[in-house]
Amino acid sequence: MRVVTMGETMGSFSSERAHPLMRGQSLSLSHAGSESNVAVALSRLGVTTRWVGCVGDDAVGRMIVRELRAEGVDVQAHVIAGAATATMVKERLSPEHWSVGYNRSSSAGSRLSPAHTADALTPQTELLHVTGITLALGGGPRRAVLAAISRARAANVLVSLDVNHRLALWSAESAGAVLRKVLPFVDIVFASAHEAQMLCEGSSPSELAEQLGQSGVPEVVLTMGAAGSVAYTPASGLVECPARPATVVDPVGAGDAFVAGYLAARLEGEPLTERLALGTALGHAAVSTAGDWEGSPSRAQLAATMGDDVSR
């Protein structure tokens, strides 16, 4: 597996029409989770990827394992007896607005431990991708992520971190304190401009990216929604990329798609401009389609719809 990622994947129930939930309304069932979203998007781009996580001994957990494998993702799923697989409900309040609620307290996914990730990396692994969500789920998941990072560093495997702050899981203060301790062991960090302010001083995205880079993170990538993205490395300096105009169907999962595109280009040795371009193309596809990962394109689809400049 060239890429390994780990975290909680949930059953996702989404309203099929723009109306507050009520009796008799239809819901579609899928799965969602930042790390597995990235794994699916990478797999569709031809990057062999493994997802590691815990699920319950229930129908939702079995569905998650089955569907991830159907997407070509290598799955290390640990079944936790007596704990349910977490679920989320995406309520479409209007054509432009969604409300997302979670049922993940004491879930199987929150039982992830260092033992579950001990065999996650392979001799072929080039990159470990983790997120702040897993760090926020509790002591066990946090230790699992830190242990995996330690093993990756010892094996000269790149480590990427998506801050992915969730206020429902921990405060900005708590998140910042933990994440700042993790940053010295990370090779690539992804964050929104707002999230970056938890980690360093600065106002503009460019200033924040430079500050993070100068603090020791080798590669910093900040996303700014409709304003595009910016990346910084000491060798290349600041590189900016505009967003692609899009009709937003579902904004959830766009950040994960961007991360997958960027990492795929990174693994192919592309320069910062191409990494941002491929990330932007995948983010555009994600927001233009309903679902957290369903809109992630293959290489062939990218070439057919967006041109050869982002299809490598």
TrEMBL record:
One molecular function GO term is:
kinase activity
Q: Which Pfam families match?
A: PfkB
* Family matches, as InterPro entries: Carb_kinase_PfkB-like (IPR052700), Carboh/pur_kinase_PfkB_CS (IPR002173), PfkB_dom (IPR011611), Ribo/fructo_kinase (IPR002139), Ribokinase-like (IPR029056)
Q: Where is this region: Disordered?
A: 290-312
Q: Start and end of every Carbohydrate kinase PfkB domain?
A: 3-296
Any idea which UniProt keywords this protein has? Answer: Kinase, Transferase
Q: Which family does it belong to?
A: Belongs to the carbohydrate kinase PfkB family.
Return the PANTHER family for the record: 2-DEHYDRO-3-DEOXYGLUCONOKINASE_2-DEHYDRO-3-DEOXYGALACTONOKINASE (PTHR43320:SF2), SUGAR KINASE (PTHR43320)
Q: What is this protein called?
A: Sugar kinase
Organism source for this protein?
Answer: Subtercola vilae
